């Protein structure tokens, strides 16, 4: 994945621009992503099963726990994620990311946690031709994501100390960011997909320029990426072209 463009529609005073060596335009990342097949608990599938209207319809969904960890580690440049909690059936619109307590230089870090809240999901697929080898199969998706970073809040002791000291008293500070994330995927050939991602950042009410932004995006980040199917392991079933482990530790192959 390559960070290809950044626009600041309302000016630099609304959002900062990082240099390339700190994740700015031109930065590149490589990481794995997973999708798998499941039978979603939708009303349509419930009617099909309960009323005998036919077999339930399957769907391809993202392994959000795995994908979130892989992408976060890649963008930050180190094993920053300790673990991800995500339940696609009971809480499909929320994920909890526990960040590592050890920094890249092995120094200790305070407990930090990300809560991701997802809503307003939308998707659309199109087939513009009959074949699948000429880039004519496309899929589009978008979602709103609220990212809440929970940090310990340092507070000074109310009594004089020989040296400045900070202690954690159980209070928390929360940093909130709202994003709109849009993806497009286009199949160029079997096992090869190219796509684009656009992420729009919005201000929060506690930020100084929130009201003057008037609900408009203050930063627009553009990326492009290529996805290649990973060959299955040597012990995969005969004829399999790809295999993926699901969150239930079941290996699916096609």
In short:
This protein is mainly beta.
Task: Describe the SSE topology.
Elements: E1 2-7, E2 35-38, H1 43-50, E3 59-62, H2 64-76, E4 81-87, E5 91-99, E6 113-127, E7 137-156, E8 166-189, E9 192-202, H3 210-213, E10 219-228, E11 243-245, E12 251-253
Strand order of the largest sheet: 1-10-9-8-7-6-5-4
Strand-pairing-aware structural class? mainly beta
C-alpha end-to-end distance: 25 Å
What profile does the largest beta sheet have? 8 strands, antiparallel
Oligomeric state, counting identical vs distinct chains = single chain
Helix content: under 10%
Give the strand tally: 12
Order of helices and strands: EEHEHEEEEEEHEEE
Characterize the overall form: globular
What Rg, in angstroms, do the CA atoms define? 22 Å
Please tell me about this protein's structure.
The protein starts with a strand and ends with a strand. By secondary structure, the protein is mostly beta strands. The strands form 3 sheets. It has an 8-stranded antiparallel beta sheet with strand order 1-10-9-8-7-6-5-4, covered by helices on one side. Helix content is 10%, strand content 46%. The chain has one domain. The radius of gyration is 22 Å and the shape is globular. The protein contains 3 helices and 12 strands. The longest helix is centred in the first third of the chain and has 13 residues.
């Amino acid at each position: 994945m390559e960070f290809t463009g950044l626009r600041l529609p309302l000016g630099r005073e609304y959002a900062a621009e990082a240099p390339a060596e700190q994740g700015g335009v031109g930065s590149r990342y490589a990481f794995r992503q997973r999708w798998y097949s499941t039978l979603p608990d939708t009303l349509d599938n419930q009617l099909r099963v309960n009323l005998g209207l036919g077999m339930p319809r399957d769907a391809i969904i993202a392994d959000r726990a795995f994908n979130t960890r892989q992408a976060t580690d890649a963008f930050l440049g180190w094993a920053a994620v300790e673990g991800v909690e995500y339940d696609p059936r009971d809480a499909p619109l929320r994920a909890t990311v526990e960040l590592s307590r050890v920094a890249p230089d092995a120094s200790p870090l305070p407990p930090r946690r990300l809560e991701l809240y997802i809503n307003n999901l939308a998707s659309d697929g199109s087939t513009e031709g009959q074949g699948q080898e000429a880039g004519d199969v496309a899929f589009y998706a978008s979602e709103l994501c609220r990212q809440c970073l929970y940090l310990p809040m340092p507070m000074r002791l109310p009594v004089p100390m020989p040296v400045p000291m900070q202690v954690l008293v159980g209070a928390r500070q929360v940093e909130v960011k709202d994003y709109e994330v849009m993806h497009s995927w286009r199949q160029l050939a079997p096992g090869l997909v190219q796509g684009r991602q656009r992420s729009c950042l919005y201000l929060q009410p506690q930020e100084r320029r929130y009201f003057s932004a008037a609900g408009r995006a203050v930063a627009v980040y553009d990326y492009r990426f290529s996805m290649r199917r990973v060959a299955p392991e040597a012990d995969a079933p005969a004829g399999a072209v790809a295999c993926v482990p699901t969150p239930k530790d079941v290996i699916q192959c096609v």
